[in-house]
Amino acid sequence: MVQAKLRWGIIGCANIAIGSVIPGIRQSKRGEVVAIASRGEEKAKQTAEKLGIPKAYGSYEAILEDPDIDAVYIPLPNNLHKEWTIRAAQAGKHILCEKPFSIDAAEAEEMVAACAEHGVKLAEAFMYRHHPRYAKIKEIIASGEIGTIRGIHGAFTFNSSRNTTNFRNDVSMGGGSIYDIGVYPISAARLLLGSEPEAATVHAMFSPEHGGVDMMASGLLEFPGSVALTFDCAMWAASRNTLEVLGTDGRIELPSAFVCRPDEEPVFYVTTKDGRREERTEPMNQYSLQADDLAASVLDGAPLAFDPFDTVLNMRVVDACLESARTRSRIVIANQ
């Protein structure tokens, strides 16, 4: 029996769409890319021809009017996520929105409400959460093998400092390292601990050469039970992509915590009193798993792996981190 497929439209020709998400949808079990849009018709046509996408549109509005599109992926600059998520919801399209979900938690709440009002599915593009290794890590933590969790440390850094014209270097467009990659260790700690942080303290380097955005940030999030996430993120440092979970009796280390190639076997290590062992999972495309999760929800009525309101909770933490960095103070996070 042939399963129905979710028909995708891509709003924008961003690198993440072309290099990762579109290939991921194509390799998914239940997705197909049928259209792509850009602000200029020529760019859309060139991209569609290069990638073998059947339809190209010279405006974002046009792709929302196509009745043959079930869902859209939004990889636009961060300040445009709210507008186009709400417009897509009003057009009856299901939505995968790139992270960070919005500029702040208030925007996120509006986006979630609009999707609920119009009866469309909504997901944030944290692709790493769909990889089965995270479910396996949660099982190890729950088993008590590494004891009581004392802390988590995450690091996600790279060096894009030479590219000063990128939207990530524009404060008005939601630029900066916390928005761009700090959201990964923040979301990972929330995922693994199953709770929300109570306060944030962050120090950042704001660079005049890069539009005044935070090019490097180091933070502390206080979770219930005296557990903390320490993290650093940067767009002006050597590349790292790691996560460590520290327990009273052992630790878990992920050398490629958030980004891993579809053709590699992601490895993580578990160290206990009995020694250090290597855990492997089969090669999988995280972007494909992400696309299939939305497809299963739209086509089969299955629950999404992550409730849309999770976007609001994550943005509340991001809001606190940015406020802390700007004011150089500890910020209590309202989770009610």
From TrEMBL:
Alphabetized, the UniProt keywords read: Oxidoreductase
Task: Give all residue intervals belonging to the Gfo/Idh/MocA-like oxidoreductase N-terminal domain.
Answer: 6-124
In the UniProt record, does the keyword Transferase occur?
Answer: no
Keyword check for Oxidoreductase: yes
Q: Name residues in a coiled coil.
A: none
Cited InterPro entries = Gfo/Idh/MocA-like_OxRdtase_N, Gfo/Idh/MocA_domain, GFO_IDH_MocA-like_dom, NAD(P)-bd_dom_sf
User: Where would I find the GFO/IDH/MocA-like oxidoreductase domain in this sequence?
Assistant: 134-253
Please give the Pfam families that the UniProt record associates with this protein: GFO_IDH_MocA, GFO_IDH_MocA_C3
- State the family named in the UniProt similarity comment for this chain: Belongs to the Gfo/Idh/MocA family.
Protein name from the UniProt record: Gfo/Idh/MocA family protein
